[in-house]
Amino acid sequence: MIEADVKKKLGEFSLDARVSDADFICLTGKNGSGKTTLLNLIGGILTPDEGYVTLNSRKITNLPIERRHVSIITQDSCIPHLDVDRHLVWGAKNKGLNVEPGYITEVKTGLGINFDGKVRKLSLGMRERVSLATSLISKPELILVDEALSNIDNHRDFIDIFKNLAAKAKIDVIFTTQYPEDASQADHHYRLESGKSTRFF
Amino acid sequence: MFLLLYEGFGPLRDSLGYSNEVFRAIELTLISSAVAATLSALLFTPLAYYFARNKNSLGEALSDIPASIPHPIIGVAILVIVSPLTPFGRFLLSIGINFFNTFLGLITALTIVSAPIYVNSMHPFFQSMNIAHENYALGMGVSKFRTFYAVVLPNSGRGILTASLIAMSRAMSEFGSISIVAYYVLQQPFYGVNPAPVLIYQYYTYYGLGAAVTASAVMILVSIALMVLLRLVKH
């Protein structure tokens, strides 16, 4: 369960947004509406001028990124020098988690990771699959996906599979998209317009 | 530069300028500068990364001081550290640490003068690195320290090598501080060898322009080779 009620001023732009839900949350809005700023505030890349962020009743407003249990995925998120198999378990290994090989296979199969090689040499869509899988395997409490689902082939089918894997691992997800129709696949939908949030369902 | 090469190998050519003494001096300069650049990379890469990711004007200004003061001051400062007139200096001397006319003193001076160049070269490299990689690692609960050496460093090889070569070329050209700290080295395997910039100065004062110009021309060829290597690494 993520609860965020935050205000942030960045130059001329002001964000005044509220999110309070669990499970699979879609955030839509035009370019510059504040989607990335809101995710950065929840993920700890930015700190709010006013307001708070709680995750599963734990106040995380002023915690550093590494102590939030919130994984942040953008189109550039990856550990470039690793090969795919080492990348997939990198986060979990660093956390000291014991991951069942069967679970890794399930995530790989589900997200269509049937390729290998250095992550920096993969196409954008392939890299995003690997980054999302690595995040799932590292078992954070919340995954923030900033436009990183849109470049994947058959992205609507992919969203369904990713949603099921996240639900099974009891991980909440907030994802941003420029395609309003993606919202129908989410459990909750928020729209941002000029920094103001509106909850649709 | 071309005038020096022309005169050094042409009209003003002096066989003293490419004697064994000159090649030993260049060898000492190359080795000590390479060691200084390596030390800069080992000691100051984390600092350059810190400056690239955090605003710290005071820290950045302080780290630039060795590059912005007359370098004889650095030489004097290094000698004060091991001065028998101070308790700390006496302590260092008692445990065998001496900077005066030693290889240690030479690389200490070269490291101090080239480190700001190294840090300033690494700073834009780190700034240009995609911070999304670091945020991704941090978001998976990985500490800042581990993110630095497991994510940032493995992707910084080219930047570190380039900045090290720039720092090395700066160290090779140093004269002010080493003419005070290590006019020559009184330790094997370089016993009695002057660093190349000091030797060129010495040739000028002892033998006049001819020997100094020829030795300078030889040193310029070595510097050009290093610059070519630097360009190759950059591209």
Compile the SSE list and pairings.
The complex is a heterodimer of chains A (201) and B (235).
Chain A lengths: L1 E9 L2 E9 L2 E5 L6 H9 L6 E6 L2 E2 L10 E4 L10 H12 L5 H10 L13 H14 L4 E5 L8 H14 L3 E6 L10 E6 L2 E4 L2
Parallel strand pairs in A: 3-8, 3-9, 6-7, 7-8
Antiparallel strand pairs in A: 1-2, 1-4, 4-5, 9-10
Chain B lengths: L1 H8 L10 H34 L3 H12 L2 H11 L5 H8 L8 H26 L2 H9 L4 H9 L4 H16 L5 H4 L14 H12 L1 H26 L1
Helix pairs in contact in B: 1-12, 2-6, 2-9, 2-11, 3-6, 4-6, 6-9, 7-8, 9-12, 11-12
Helicity of chain A, as a percent range: 25-40%
- What is the CA-atom radius of gyration of chain B, in angstroms? 20 Å
End-to-end span of chain A in angstroms? 15 Å
CATH class of chain B equals: Mainly Alpha
Main sheet overview of chain B = none
CATH architecture of chain B: Orthogonal Bundle
Task: Trace the largest sheet of chain A across and list its strands.
Answer: 6-7-8-3-9-10
DSSP strand content of chain B: under 5%
When the domains of chain A are counted, the total is 1
Most residues in contact: chain pair: A-B, 30 and 19 residues
What is the helix/strand order of chain A?
A: EEEHEEEHHHEHEEE
Oligomer: heterodimer
Total strands of chain B: the figure is 0
* Helix proportion range of chain B: over 70%
Note the beta-strand portion of chain A.
Answer: 25-35%
Tell me the CATH architecture of chain A.
Answer: 3-Layer(aba) Sandwich
Mean pLDDT of chain B: 91
CATH topology of chain A: Rossmann fold
The class by helix and strand makeup of chain A works out as: alpha/beta
Which homologous superfamily in CATH is the superfamily of chain A?
Answer: P-loop containing nucleotide triphosphate hydrolases
